[in-house]
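Feature request, filed as a ticket because there's no other form

It would be nice if the structure record came with a short human-readable summary line next to the tokens. Right now we just get the raw output. Example of a typical job, pasted below so the devs can see what we mean:
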Amino acid sequence: MKASSNYIGLAALSVAYAISLLYVIQHKVADEPTINDDRKVIRFGHWQLESGIRGAFDAVVREYEALNPEVRVEQLAIPDRAYPSWLRTQLVGETAPDLVLFGGVLKYDEELLARYFTPLTSKLEEPNPYNQGTDLEGMSWRNTFLDSLDNAYSVGLLDYYYAPAAMYTIRMHYNEQLWDKLLGDTPTPSDWDEFIEINQRVSENAYAQENAIMPLAGSGYNSNFILNGAMERVTQRLNAQLHRAPYTTAERSVIGSAWLDGDISLKHPSILLGLREKSRVMRFLPPGFYQLRRDDALFQFGQGRSLMLATGSWEAPSLMATVPFDVGVFLLPQPDPKKERFAAHAYGVSSEAKAASEAGGFVVLRSSANSDQAIDFLRFLTSKPGSSLFARKSSWMSPLRNIETPEETEIYKPVLDGYQHGFHLYFSGSNSRRVFRQRVNRLISGGAEAFAESSSDLFLDGVREDVVLESRVARQTAQRQDTTIASLHFLSSSSDDPGERKRWATRRNETMEAHIEQSINHAWMEETLYRYDRKKKEQ
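Raw output as currently delivered:
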């Protein structure tokens, strides 16, 4: 009888395998071009697996292919956890798609940009031909975006590299039925202290009623929207002092060098205040939240086991469609500078005016055989017709000017009036972040002062590693520009066309400016590292 059951199980497994194999083959064949299909093939890769997004991209692709019948466009959707490793592997193996989404942990990797991707600066200054007949006609491609792509500009490389297909903001989402049950007619919080008070009430209620409802759904991913957000608000004035410019956030090299020079420390009043506010919120997150994944937080919220979830507008369509309750949305609460403890540290509400390009966008592979066609598809995707179609199908916000926001996404529209945010604790790079996460339990259990006292030296060692990496990237970038400058100089002096000579000379001068800036930046960071190491030896 047992042997018979085994045979039945094996047969069932074989049938299931055969059906699955047939399904894969059918879809593979459907995706393959016909033998006579001699169209150009453009491939683009991204990590946006949220509900409806691949369908929205497909709608844009079909429209583009109808306008350009000689082109076929393929979409590659890669899970976000695997995306950074996948992209690096594809680049090294010279098998990367023509267009890839660049952002997240990759956003600050100028070395990757310089080595593998094509600058879009000159193209972005030209009008987008797909905007003909619209109110954006004649406007430079760059200026059709709400923020004129401020965040797409690489200060170190002196070039624009990407164009975004959508715009995102961070908001707090809450379970409306659970809110009514736990808080009654209490309004949503208007500032940071009210937010803390609501979390405290929910926590006390859970303890009194012996239920397992957490105030906040948390993970190593979405908790940073709250925790880093608090630090970025209370370092607004400190950022302005370091950068001498209250309207932009200081560069990573500036922040890292300030740590090593002693201008910033874990005991600095603004940093210590930020740590205190972090520790207050951490009490309302699930135990071990830094080890949890993005999906864990979404599952906890969807199961009604937490009241609130901080996440981006990219999550909204999927969230609203899958949870079995009504979801309310409000702006992330921020410290009020009118209150005494924040007055010396914060300016006020942070502006989201640069949201259009803050999260990254699509970059063009330098080695692409069809780079001009890839840029053309990117133009259509980010034109008024293409972007309107994508926004309508995805329920995401368009990053372009003069495109109406659907009523259901009104709450996600960026706040345009406000101040530039400061910097979060490990803004200098991944090594300081690693040290912080290794010692975060000391902050949760011992408080800000105890954490600062016990972690300062280790944290500075992490910052030092970040500055070493930044310095190395600056040196390597400057070295790569030597060949480019020589080539541009040759073109600027050998062309018979005066206009061409002028264009190449301008490009040469811009590249030389970037080369000088990178060389100065490298020398400055090396000097900072020397001072820090010498001071440490003398202690």
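Something like this underneath would help us a lot:
Residues 1-7, 9-13, 15-36 have pLDDT under 50 and may be disordered.
Residues 247 and 475 are 28 Å apart (CA to CA).
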